[in-house]
Specification:
The structure is a homodimer of 199-residue chains. By secondary structure, chain A is mainly alpha-helical. At the A-B interface, helix 8 and helix 10 of A face helix 8 and helix 10 of B.
DNA sequence: CTCTTCCGACCGAGCGATCGCTCGGTTTAG
DNA sequence: CTAAACCGAGCGATCGCTCGGTCGGAAGAG
């Protein structure tokens, strides 16, 4: 029985999109030619176009996959946690940190290539981004309403916490000084201080 | 006597680099052709190349200007503040927030186009970025040593604070719901909670 | 003062290379 | 035999960049 070695990714990407994702991370969308995607995927250029309509569509699929993966994991984490505000908060922050630390490629693209999306796809992406932010907003709001969180600025604190977790994708290395567990523990502690969790 | 209307920018950019900067923000470096930079600057393509060696050099100049502006402002803010840790911290966080809110274009490019830099320029840029981070690290360290800041994770908290300030450039709008003063006040309050400032 | 020279600022046209993408096939699995 | 999977070659467009100039104003010569 095989062990799932990609704990954060619910559904795997196709090899082609995986290749495209890596190229987009390293060179950016406009800096990546379809020829290097094809070479990385072990295909010819027409081989690529047999599976995907355009380079733009590859980007859209990669970004949609990233956002829906994160959202689904967030929902699961919230559903699996106790219902009190602090437990919900810990679950969501932990999920955010893990995703951005262990799924760096999709996480990085999800916020660095927004401007490369066609207008309609960009609107959809931003809607997904806002929905993700709203999860945190609601958890923080609930904690403030329950008197568990003492921050005087729930909206801004919520955004600050999401962005500090998001940017973990920019610097975290699995082989760096912090183990995954240490990383999550420390960011949980920091995030709790940021919203002013009691205790 | 003229009033300086660009409070965050110590030295102005040339009109050409200003045009390049705007294009890079909107389309990204690889998504921007020199022809659109030229059009935006009101010049022909050879006109551009009379002043700058290459598109790459324009990017390097824009990014270097952004980083050195921020660093100089940070030094000035620290020098102008009282020497106690909390005052130094407030000065540095305020400076960071103001720069990323009011100088959105250079701030955005400074962290979104790193991968578009040539290898040597990228090394230099990252060195400047690290120096900027070190300013915050030192202030936080001093506060922890003085018993003013209670965070159990100074290094990670320092990075979290810098990144939450940095990402202000991604969403803040001058004509949005938050006035500049409100923005700075709230981020100061949030950052103080994040490092666990007493009182 | 005029005339000549010179130089920095600028541009029309276009170079070779590469871009995203497609045509007209062949190969391969069932 | 069919259909999905795949590819060599190459299309028109655009890329970064340059060639060979024009032009106006400052500087020097008479």
């Amino acid at each position: 029985m095989a062990i799932d070695t990609t704990p954060s990714s619910l559904t795997p990407l196709s090899p082609i999109l995986e290749a495209a994702q890596e190229c987009f991370v390293e060179q950016g969308y406009h800096g990546t030619s379809i020829r290097v995607i094809a070479a990385r995927a072990g295909l010819s250029v027409p081989g690529l176009y047999h599976h995907y309509r355009s380079k733009q569509q590859m980007l859209q699929d990669v970004m949609k996959h990233a956002m829906t993966s994160l959202y689904r994991q967030s929902e699961d984490a919230l559903a699996a946690a106790e219902t009190d505000p602090l437990a919900q908060f810990n679950a969501l922050v932990g999920c955010l940190v893990r995703f951005h630390a262990f799924e760096r490629a999709p996480a990085f693209i999800a916020y660095s290539e927004i401007r490369s999306l066609d207008e309609e796809a960009r609107r959809e992406h931003i809607a997904r981004r806002d929905a993700q932010q709203r999860l945190m907003d609601q958890v923080v709001e609930a904690g403030v309403a329950a008197g568990e969180f003492t921050t005087p600025h729930p909206t801004e604190a919520s955004r600050a916490i999401v962005t500090m977790c998001t940017s973990v994708a920019q610097w975290y290395r699995m082989d760096g000084p912090l183990t995954p567990d240490e990383l999550v523990d420390r960011y949980l502690a920091i995030a709790r201080m940021t919203i002013g969790a009691r205790g």
